[in-house]
Amino acid sequence: MDLLPRSPGEFGSARYWDRFFRQRGRRPFEWYGAFPELCPVLHKYVRPRDKVLVVGCGNSELSEQMYDTGMCEDIVNIDVSDAVIRQMRERSGSRRPKMSYLVMDMLQMDFPDAGFQVVLDKGTLDAILTDEEEATLAKVDRMFAEISRVLQIGGRYLCVSLAQAHVLKKAVDYFSQEGWVVRIHQVAGSGDKQQFVLPVFVYVMTKFRKIPGSAPQILEICSEEQDKPMRVESAERLVAAVKDRQHYALLCSQLSKTPCGEQVSLDLCDRASGKPRYTLHVVDSPLVRPSRDNRFAIFIIPQGRETEWLFGTEEGRRQLAASAGFGRLVTVALHREHCYEGMASIQAELSGKVMELAPPGLPARQQVPFLSVGGDIGVRTVQHCDTSPMSGEYVVEDVKGDGICYFRRLIFLGNRNVVQSEARLLAPTPLPGQRKRRKDKKKPSPAELPATIDKSYLCCEHHKAMVAGLCLLGGPDPLPALLAVLVVGLGGGSLPLFIHDYFSKARVAVVEIDPSMLEVATRWFGFSQGDRMQVHVSDGLDYVARLAAEAPAQYDAIMFDVDSKDLTLGMSCPPPAFVEKPFLQKVKTILKPEGVFVLNLVCRDARLKESVLATLREVFPLLYARQIEGEVNEILFCQPSPEQRRDPTELEARAQALEGALRQPGRPWDSSYVLSDMLQAVKIL
């Protein structure tokens, strides 16, 4: 049976609606949900003594249910369809004496001015505003003008809508410019009975006298679970907030019907600040055969560990879901800007929301487990936050790692998923007579966290590989008597500090473009300058160019560990200018003939990476590469002469000899750091 219009414009035709209701018969047609879903919102804005006008009433039961439940009785229903008005009069009969039905065009109503406290519209605006043609917009303007005319000051226009962007924007722009208060409510879904995948909204436009001049707009939005509205600053932001909720509803609908082939990511924001509080990834594991007890679980990532490979990469999360043994796993990352009381409070806060992401077929009352590492949400203490003119916002934070170790990290908030620098913290040594903390005591407060930097420990695998590359230096002695090293990129200073401390006669020059980073390294990461360690605050490009002109062939080793601030590129380390041929030739000029140039390359663009490698080979005839396992980083060891080439056996022997020379009695050494292991996977390009 043909019940839908042949073109959207027919929604405004009285003839279409007459035909529609004659063919449909007496069965109620409910646009956008029934009374139980709308009732919680309507109760806030419709009072028992209000006189209510329902425009485009159709044969919906909404007016009857409002009357029968005592919400309101003085209700006038109008519609352009004579057929439906006759039908509704017959259906209501004499049982609702205070309610009336009239054939009337809402674009030209016969009512006197200011005769109603409420105008209720369920889907009528959506039916009229089917496009943005001039004639359609003019019709909507007449509709809004008539609604404004018949409403009293303080009256409410309640419009139930799917909130398509052009419909919402038209309504918000019109009434906010008239000085009305605009509030948007999201209506709670009705589960399996919900007619539409998209959520239903109620626009609440409250009429105020228009104040001459530019009075501030009052624009608010309420989610289905919120009682208190959230104020937004502009009509554009209000439309965007509604769009976010629509996208979320579509996502939940999709996830409830089929497994997701690709991982889905979304942020849940704090209502007060609007900032992300939780970041969720939905991971379906095809390797797991779902049963009743392993369909769905939530995994809380301990604070500070969200950048680890297992939690911070797609492949890692896939492995986590498979090893956890659940068909669908939702990982939850906690944001540093917020406080979390513990696993129980997080579970209470998230339980309702994460169930909207449940897989198909999950029983409604199924208990869903919340998992974590050892049932712990981790420890994160922000020690310092600031803004650098060059690097943007950054934080220094202490986090608890896997086990009992704590780490200090530097993170640029422009790329918050990347740890810029990291150092291990030493456990505090108790003073004489000081008791050890009882095992049953709660987690340490920020003041109790260890604060001394362990300079013997290189946290970053790429730093370990860069130091191991010093085995490539010429000469029979694995530990040169004198060693001149240039490091471009300071960060927290771990790399130059390690070289300074373990190569006792090394002279280290560090070039750092951002003076804020020197302050951070000195204050928070135990970095200090001295006779053998000097920092030059300068652009690395300019510094190398100046040295090439003034003092060539002076460094045994040159190391580049400098990030790019342009996140749109496929290469985040180094900036492109550092691997252009003219500059690389300057690098070669200041390197001794038997020296080594070590480059930390982070490039996700395969074509760009091949281009960089080709340029390096043009300048440096001998090129080794060491891929860092589980990371994008690749360490390149570049040497000026092909005669410096060493076979794998010789390279391993020199690495073992260098490690033996660096391991001195009384000097701490990380037992997991084996130089020869770092060079086993090296390949010649």
TrEMBL record:
Organism: Atlantisia rogersi (Inaccessible Island rail)
Bias type Basic residues, positions: 434-444
Keyword list, A-Z: Methyltransferase, Multifunctional enzyme, Transferase
Domain Methyltransferase: 50-173
GO biological process: methylation
Highest taxon, organism lineage: Eukaryota
Chain positions covered by the region annotation Disordered: 429-449
InterPro entries registered for this protein in UniProt: Lys/N-term_MeTrsfase_sf, Methyltranfer_dom, SAM-dependent_MTases_sf
Keyword Cytoplasm: no
One Pfam family recorded for the sequence: Methyltransf_31
Gene Ontology CC annotation, any one: cytoplasm
Protein's UniProt name: eEF1A lysine and N-terminal methyltransferase
Gene Ontology molecular-function annotations: methyltransferase activity
Family per similarity comment: Belongs to the methyltransferase superfamily.
